[in-house]
Specification:
Blueprint (H helix, E strand, L loop, with lengths): L1 H27 L1 H23 L1
Length: 53
């Protein structure tokens, strides 16, 4: 049971930090957010292409 509680706290901390990062990106400007999304999509495509080989 203790492990489940620790995992829940870690998951909550990671998800809240993610929301903060997204907020900061869009405070910097729309184009920074667009570039960040494109970079993530390219990274995911690269990783998928590496697994297919």
């Amino acid at each position: 049971m203790r492990l489940i509680n620790i995992l829940a706290v870690v998951l909550a901390a990671l998800s809240l930090a993610g929301c903060e990062v997204i907020g900061d990106i869009f405070k910097a400007g729309m184009w920074v957010g667009v570039l960040a999304v494109v970079a993530v999509i390219v990274l995911i495509g690269f990783v998928i292409s590496r697994f297919r080989k």
